[in-house]
Amino acid sequence: MPASRSPLRRSLTAVAATSLLVGALGACGYGSQAKDQDRAVPVARGEKVGGLDEVRIGYFANVTHATALAGLQEGLFQKELGGTKVKAQVFNAGPSEIEALNAKAIDIGWIGPSPALNGFSRSKGQNLRIVGGSASGGVSLVVHGEKVKSLDDLKGKRLATPQLGNTQDVALLNYLSQKGHTVDASTGKGDVTVLRQDNKEIPFSFKSGAIDGAWVPEPTASKLVADGGTVLLDEKKLWKDEKFVITNIIVRQDFLTKHPDVVEAVLRGSVKTNAWIKANPDRAKASVNAKLKADSGKELPAQVLDRAFRNVEVIDDPLASTLRDEALHAQKVGLLKDPLLDGIYDLRPLNKVLAAAGRPAVEDAGLGVK
């Protein structure tokens, strides 16, 4: 179950192994892991918001980023931005998106909790703010049913996560610790072997039998199920009200200061996109799949898309208290030391958008700007 919500200290030092890995991944260069998506952006028309020519948006080609995918595909962000052009880039790793944000190559991004936490903490709270939520859930432990019979049968097994220190990696390590298993966080060796593999590679490892299972987000989890895997645990079952943040919206701090009206416009687009997705689930699925095909050259099979889409809930609330718990989990398993969270949220623009729509404000769990 989630750790208790005790106050966190204000300073952070990432453990050496994690820092080295994040640095190494970042050194690959955001350019090598980002794909220009100008062709997918509708033509900008009308008055520019705040006179700004363009806003650069980053996201992943994952179903857990459905808001970004559908909002870009349907032109809902561009509609709110008028003559300010949307320039979108797709990333396949959190560190590369954080690097792009730090390098001012993007202004706003959809990203998982752990990269946001790590980026904020390593910069001592100077590079980003979380300005909204985007998705909850959509993460499962999927196994070969004949190899892993139950949650009490994990010892000695080989389980994959997408990346050392990423959101699913922290969740698996924390769960194994709660079950009494000892695993070295940096090497993944212990009572259970934790292997860090790219989401694209995990299905191949699963098919070949190189791994016994994986703790992964959508659509990877549904791909494994389609290949005969068994869902041993849906992570939402571990959280209060079965809700936990899986995707946040972040913004560069200097961009938020200089262009708050542009940030508000993007957040309006996000809120309207989430409402559209909920009101039009079948059209939204098709839209998400079309954007995935545009980004990767391949769409998801219906059986994978249907299940993945069903397991992800789009949200506007960043579920701040669950981010705090995730930071505590990372601290517990040795991937973060003295997590820095104070000031990570600035929900004033989102709450302004929600108020204009006649909706209640969302909370920052005491972790917002003062």
Question: Would you give an account of this structure?
Answer:
With 370 residues, this protein is of the alpha/beta class. It is built from 15 helices and 14 strands. The protein has helices spanning 16-27, 30-33, 66-73, 76-81, 94-102, 113-122, 167-178, 202-208, 220-226, 253-258, 260-279, 281-296, 302-311, 320-332, 348-356, and strands at residues 13-14, 34-36, 54-60, 85-91, 108-111, 128-137, 139-143, 158-161, 193-196, 213-217, 230-234, 245-252, 312-314, 336-337. The strands form 3 sheets. The protein has a 7-stranded mixed β-sheet with strand order 2-4-3-5-12-6-13, sandwiched between helices. A 5-stranded mixed β-sheet has the order 9-8-10-7-11, sandwiched between helices. The protein has a two-stranded antiparallel sheet with strand order 1-14. Strand 8 (158-161), helix 7 and strand 9 form a beta-alpha-beta unit. Helix 1 (16-27) crosses helix 5 (94-102). It is globular. The protein starts with 12 loop residues before the first strand and ends in a 14-residue tail after the last helix. Mean pLDDT is 89; it is low at 1-41.
